Amino acid sequence: MKVTIYDVAKKAGVSTATVSKIINNTGSISEKTKQKVQKVMDELQYQPSMIASALKGKSTQTIGLLIPDLSNPIFAEYAKYIEERGQELGFSVIMCNTDTNPERELKYITLLKQKQVDGIIVAARFKNIDLLKELIKEKFPLATIAQDLPALPMDSVTVDDFLGGYQVTDYLLSLGHRKIGVIAEGDRSSKERIKGYRQALIDAGLKPDEDLIVVCDESTREWARMNAGRLLDKKKHLSAIFGCNDLLAVGVMQAARERGLTIPHDLSVIGFDNTDLSEVVYPSLTTVKQPLRDIGHHVVDLLNQQIEGNSRTTQRVVLLPELVIRESTVQVGNPNK
User: Fold this and answer.
1) 246-258 vs 221-234: helix axis angle to the nearest 10?
2) HSE of 128, CA atoms in CB hemisphere, 13 A
3) Could you give the 3-state DSSP secondary structure of residue 107?
4) What is the number of other CB atoms lying within 10 angstroms of the CB of residue 311?
5) How does pLDDT run across 172-199, given as a tens digit for each residue?
């Protein structure tokens, strides 16, 4: 009977993925583990080249990444750091843009499984929850970023969106703003940011005005421009608007300029994510910084633990946001009134 990679992994006390990485000289494996596995391969007279092509379920050193919208710079930056960490661990990353379409999600998941990827990372706004449940049932290595799905036992890495929304609102209140609008998208992250916005108002003794909160059908600059325009036309007393991501905030800035408003003196605008976009717009955008590199690296590490067979419990990592003050916000009136 031919010796298989599974025989080697079992005797060496490691995963098949670890054996594959050692054979292919990829990934971050300790010298001690390499020597132990090599000794077992020698003892069993294992010949990888003779049977590699017949190994169903072998490590392919690839992971899939499902992104909902590559036109949003936050997802491009997530992808950058996921690929960076993936390469450090010996993985190639196959990226798929789903356009938040359940049919495309199914298509790409099916394709990635056919390609025998070692695991899949799912970014925010994934719609096909039943498909995720199937993957979890199959014990397929799976992790998510920018969305926490409490009902599903899957690893996740997120930022504290509630705290970020609270920080934004508390800062605007400290500048004297009292009528603060919100332009949001319909995902879980925005909902948490809105909760933080409401709580900051309540803590300041103010009653949240639900008419000042607008949820866009799509997370695009154009939708934000249109909805912010309607909000400004209807609520002319607004002094600040919180865009729940940088792309939405830029749409708010466009709507303000179309109405002859000067930023920040007529309208303060604040975003969320701290993408490159926040620094290149004029005036530069006050926003909330997500630790994007940490998020990207953490999620790959969590997925790799599953691939290696070292993860026994669901891990939910929540990282802290940080307010970055730039030129798009300004003091108004008397903050004590």
Assistant:
1) 50
2) 21
3) helix
4) 16
5) 999 999 999 999 998 889 999 999 999 9
Tell me the pLDDT band of 87, cut-offs 50, 70 and 90. Answer: very high
Q: What is the DSSP string of 187-225?
A: SHHHHHHHHHHHHHHHHTT----GGGEEE-SS-SHHHHH
Reduce the DSSP state of residue 19 to 3 states and report it.
helix
Size (the chain), residues: 337
pLDDT-derived band of residue 334, with 50, 70 and 90 as boundaries? low
Give yes or no on whether 62-159+291-319 and 161-290 have one common fold: yes
Q: Please identify, in words, the CATH class of the domain defined by 62-159+291-319.
A: alpha beta
Report the predicted TM-score, pTM, of the whole model to 2 decimal places: 0.79
What is the overall mean pLDDT for the chain?
89
Question: What's the confidence (pLDDT) of residue 202?
Answer: 98
Residue 326 tokens, joined? 């730039």
Count CB neighbours of 236 within 10 A: 9
For residue 30, give Cα distances in angstroms to 33, 76, 175, 197, 264: 5, 32, 53, 47, 54
Mean pLDDT value across residues 111-125: 91
Domain 161-290 has CATH 3.40.50.2300: yes
